[in-house]
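Before a computer can learn anything about folding, someone has to put a protein's shape into writing. The outcome of that step, for a single protein, is printed below:
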Amino acid sequence: MAQKTTNIWDRLGALRSLMKISEAEYKAFMDTYGALFIDSPESTKADYDNGVPIQGYRQGSSKELEQYYRIIHLLCTLGSVEKMYMPPVINPNKSVMENQILLEERMGKDLKVSPGSKVLEIGCGCGAIATSMGEITGAEMFGTNIDPSQIEKAWENPALKRENFTVGDFNKAFPFPDNTFDAVYAIQPMTYISDHDHTMSEIYRVLKPGGIFGFNDVAALDTYDRENNTHRMLIQHTRELTAFGGFWHYKYWEDLFKKPGFNLLISEEQGAVENIKKEVALYSRYQALFSFLSSIRIIPRKIFLLIQRMHANAESYIKAEEAGLIDLNWYAVMQKPG
């Protein structure tokens, strides 16, 4: 079955919603950058080698994070990332959205589920990934997300069961009994974990024996040096562009997976540089277009300013991945013993 990708009607719908944003909502979004992306925790390879304990993202799943995602989701829908993640380059000849589907197909295969299985997505956004994963696997999809506006959008999707998608916070106890799901997966939401042990234990708890947890998220790489001013600047710029909070070396992640009892099956880097370049080029064109449209008062200036803020220092993201400082697609698969 052909997978749905973001089309012109989706983009126009996002633009209409942006046109309706109030001044209070605009200001609240701009203020989130100072609340969410300052003094975020970082755990490097040197920290790991020296036995420094991991520090969680202190803001956790905050009201500011909810406000941020209410707007950033609309801005991302204007481009190729309605699903709220930048995929790795699995096929360089394919588009960003096509590479998302390729990643989801890989994840679906590695989850080892089939029709009748129950699968939970942590940080499900508007349900776009869950829709794709349901089509790929035939499984019954469930999802939780902190942003009510995105859950409301998931409820409008006829491919998803409304009752299976709820507002939820993975920094709190999961609202599911033990041994509920055949698989759980997370694609780039877990940078906001405030208590790693708690969240990993909850994932382990709700999985059935033999169940699979699939992970695709941000990780610090061996090259990143927090004492290097250039490195730190590139990472901070990338943090603000891609909305990651905590930033932890992949060895910390591997230990966290094993701690509750998972068997680690796969743990590997997946670069995204060429996809990043495509999306940065697209938003550079958007920035120029919206600057012109706002100058002749076809659209409110605040829409141009939102694009400008989102896109600020975008080249740093490319430089950070090319320098081997960061991977927004560290891919891991683990299994609960059965």
